[in-house]
Structure formats: C-alpha cells, structure tokens
C-alpha cells in the first residue's frame, strides 16, 4: 500500500493565527497617514530647482516632524524604537562598507548617462560656486535624514512587529513610487536601493546607516556630474 501524507491546510492555519492577533489598528493608521504625507510632499514641496530651502524644509517637516509627533505625543513611544539610535552599529557599518564599495564604480558609470547629467545637480548654482555646492550638500543631508527616518525608521519599524522581514518589501513600494518624477534609470535603481537599505536597517536596528549611505551616494553623484560637465 502507498502511504499518503495527510493534507495540510496552510490557509486555515494562517487564518487561525491571524484571528489570534490583535487588529492592525496602529499599522493601518500609520499607513494611511504615510500615504497622506507622501501626497502632501509630492504635490506641495515644490521644485528644489526653484526653491531649495522650501523643498527641503517641507520634506523635513512632513516626513520627519509629523511622524515624530505622532510617535511621541499620541503613541507615547520613544523615537529610538523607530530607528533613531545607534542600534547595531557594527552591523550597519559593515553594510555601509560593502554597499559603498559597490556604489562608487556604479555611480561613476551612471554619471555619464545623459538623463542623469541633465537632471543633476538639482541645485544648478552648485555647478559654478563652491559655497553653493557646500550648501547643496548640507541641504541633501537634511532631506535624506527625513526620508530615511520616514521609510527605514517609521514605516519599517511600524510594520516589522506584525510582518517581520516582509516589512522591507512593503516600505520599498512607496519609496520607489516617490522616484517616478526622476529619471527612469534612477526609479528602477530605487527598487534595489529600497530593498538594500531596508535589509541594512532591519538587521542594524537603526536608520542612521542608511541616511549616511544615501546622503553620501547623492553627494558623490552630484560631484561626478559636475566634474563631467552638463549633459546634452
């Protein structure tokens, strides 16, 4: 006689497990708020080419300030629970080293692409004045701090408790969508970047490494494009 293994209903097990979990009220509220905040930034931050300080300031206020107030005043939690801490610095430090070694040659090659050379640097005056270039670097730092807190701090931490590592994929989706107005090659690269930075922060328990890496990569690309000269 042939022995047969009893069928296992994984869907039923999953449904049973979900019934034992509390409703995802906080996660739902956080995702709805995140959607609204991203829409506000997309439609009202303006163009960094025309008003760089307004653009960076609104991004910082909306993507860092609002979630931070929600966490502190409504949820009564510490920002350190949402990645604003050193975390496992040795782990994310190794990720920075590895990703940095990969990014340098990739960005050097990408800086020759006409689409990127005509788009960067966003602050056009940085092509001609050292002071403007340094100012641009500082503004990028503020901007990416807000972005990395929002995606790899607020969203990733909010969703990790319920969804585990799958939260890395979830936060990557809106991150990529916010690149739709940028050159096509950068939007596709954002898929890889969103996943890679998500993995770094998930294991490193902090978004600070992603902030430094993202800021450094954007700064390097700007300098390479300026070095090559404007695109066609």
The N- to C-terminal Cα distance equals 75 Å
Integer average pLDDT: 91
Question: Mind summarizing the main beta sheet?
Answer: none
Approximate strand percentage: under 5%
- The H-and-E topology, N to C, reads as HHHHHHHHH
Which consecutive residue ranges, at least 5 long each, have pLDDT under 50?
8-14
Based on Cα principal axes, name the global outline.
Answer: globular
Level of helix content?
over 70%
User: How many DSSP-defined strands?
Assistant: 0
The secondary structure category is mainly alpha
Work out the count of structural domains: 1
Number of helices: 9
Radius of gyration: 20 Å
Describe this structure in words.
The chain has about 230 residues and is mainly alpha-helical. It contains 9 helices and no strands. The chain has one domain (about 30-230). Helix 4 runs antiparallel to helix 8, helix 4 packs parallel to helix 9 (about 210-230) and helix 6 packs antiparallel against helix 9. The termini are far apart. Residues about 10-15 have low confidence and may be disordered.
Question: Main attributes?
Answer:
232 residues, mainly alpha, 0% strand, globular
Secondary-structure map:
Blueprint: H1 10-20, H2 25-44, H3 52-74, H4 89-110, H5 114-117, H6 130-163, H7 166-177, H8 184-204, H9 208-228
Task: Summarize it.
The protein is an all-alpha fold and 232 residues long. The protein has nine helices and no strands.
């Amino acid at each position: 006689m042939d022995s047969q293994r009893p069928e296992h209903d994984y869907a039923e097990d999953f449904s049973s497990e979900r019934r034992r979990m509390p409703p995802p009220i906080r996660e739902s509220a956080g995702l709805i708020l995140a959607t609204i905040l991203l829409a506000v930034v997309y439609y009202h931050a303006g163009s960094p080419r025309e008003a760089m300080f307004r653009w960076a300031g609104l991004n910082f206020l909306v993507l860092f300030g609002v979630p931070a107030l929600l966490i502190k005043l409504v949820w009564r939690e510490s920002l350190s629970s949402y990645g604003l801490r050193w975390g496992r610095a040795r782990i994310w430090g190794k990720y920075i080293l590895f990703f940095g070694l990969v990014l340098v040659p990739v960005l050097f090659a990408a800086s020759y692409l006409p689409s990127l050379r005509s788009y960067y640097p966003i602050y056009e005056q940085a092509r001609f004045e050292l002071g403007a270039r340094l100012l641009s670097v500082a503004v990028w730092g503020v901007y990416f701090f807000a972005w990395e807190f929002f995606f790899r701090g607020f969203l990733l931490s909010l969703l990790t408790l319920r969804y585990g590592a799958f939260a890395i994929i979830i936060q990557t989706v809106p991150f990529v969508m916010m690149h739709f107005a940028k050159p096509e090659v950068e939007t596709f690269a954002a898929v890889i970047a969103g996943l890679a930075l998500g993995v770094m922060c998930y294991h490193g328990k902090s978004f600070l490494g992603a902030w430094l890496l993202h800021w450094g990569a954007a700064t390097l690309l700007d300098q390479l494009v300026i070095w090559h000269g404007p695109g066609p």
